[in-house]
Design brief:
Chain lengths: 259, 111
């Protein structure tokens, strides 16, 4: 009999995955359309969908406030500005400028190399170590956080973050109390594999991931903006003022010189 | 099936590559601006995803949420809006002077 909460957890995982692939496809395909389209109006519409897809991703990442800001400022502000620019600067909306074949080849090569580098350089999120064959998996599995994962088959212990010293000590204590690790040599082997695991996990994040049931800390974001980030916050307001004056001055209507 | 950090990083890398290609390939100045917006969005996806998955949620023991990545993303959005406003003002001036928005025409400073 499976616990109903477990079914719910699986369903929410599936929903999250489906939504991620939906928004990722929206973002990726429309970003590709921005590159491929030669029509500036189509490009701006594709950019609209890219920005909306990123908004969805922000919602999935539990950054609701940021998603709202993205929707209001980016989609509702910056994109409208760009569309105004398109309207003001094109004699015909279908004007086209074609890059040469050589330029296309060099640019595509550069982008492909960069993409391959970024994808291959992504950080590994798991560390693992081989356990002695008779190490009991049951006491290693912490189902509440699912941080320590035991894989059957070759006895291998995998974690996705660093273990705190207290957690390390607790695991050693439980190993010492476990009758299945009877011999002292077994216990030593287990301690050594745990040391190896801690060593392998040095580059992993030290903190626990966000608790999905915790209330969303929008208040924390506000406090951060008026606390740790007060200076950048004020600087941003000064920049916005300067930009407003500068843009109004630069875009002041002038008579076109008779060329 | 579980979505992790790497999914977001790969998507962000793809959007970044698209933005770079747009910057390199378009000769319409506003098209180049759109490429810059794509690059900034890729950076924002990275910042928020790393804040969620890598940086972690709660500082050790204090219960205080850590939202550095989201704060940075917020500033990136603000700067992007400012940058778009100034860039468009410059493009309007350019269009007024050259009657074209093709960046290849801006060769006055060429030696």
């Amino acid at each position: 009999m499976i616990h109903p909460a477990a079914i719910l957890a699986v369903q929410s995982h599936v929903t999250e995955a489906l939504l991620f692939y939906l928004f990722a496809a929206l973002t990726g395909i429309s970003a590709l359309t921005v590159v491929a389209s030669r029509n500036i109006v189509r490009m701006s519409v594709a950019l609209l969908f890219t920005l909306s897809g990123v908004t969805g991703l922000f919602f999935l990442l539990q950054a609701e406030f940021l998603a709202a800001v993205q929707l209001v400022v980016y989609v509702g502000g910056t994109l409208i500005l760009i569309v105004f620019g398109v309207m003001l600067t094109s004699k015909s909306p279908f004007t086209r400028f074609e890059p040469s074949k050589g330029e296309v080849a060099i640019a595509v090569m550069l982008a492909a190399v960069l993409l391959a580098t970024l994808v291959l350089a992504k950080p590994s999120q798991l560390a693992s170590a081989v356990l002695p064959a008779n190490a009991a998996p049951s006491f290693l599995l912490d189902s509440s956080t699912n941080v320590v994962r035991y894989e059957p088959g070759p006895a291998r212990l995998t974690i996705d973050r660093q273990l705190a010293p207290a957690e390390h000590a607790a695991l050693l204590e439980r190993a010492a109390a476990d009758p299945r690790l009877a011999g002292s040599s077994d216990r030593q082997t287990f301690a050594r594999s745990l040391e190896q695991l801690m060593h392998n996990a040095r580059a992993l994040p030290a903190r626990q991931p966000l608790d999905p049931d915790a209330p969303y800390p929008t208040a924390g974001l506000g406090l951060a903006l008026l606390g740790d980030y007060l200076l950048p916050f004020e600087l941003a307001s000064v920049i916005l003022l300067a930009v407003m004056i500068g843009a109004a001055y630069l875009a002041k209507a002038r008579r076109r010189p008779q060329a | 099936m579980t979505i992790g950090l790497n999914h977001y990083l790969i998507l962000s890398a793809f959007v970044f590559a698209c933005g770079l290609l747009t910057i390199l390939l378009k000769r319409n100045a506003i098209g180049i601006l759109m490429g810059v917006e794509l690059v900034l969005n890729a950076a924002n996806i990275n910042l928020v995803a790393l804040n969620r998955y890598w940086h972690g949620g709660v500082a050790g023991g204090t219960g205080k949420p850590l939202l550095d990545g989201q704060a940075f993303a917020l500033f990136v959005i603000v700067i992007a809006a400012a940058e778009a406003a100034v860039a468009l003002a410059i493009f309007l001036n350019f269009y007024n002077n050259y009657s074209s928005i093709d960046v290849e025409k801006a060769t006055k400073l060429k030696g």
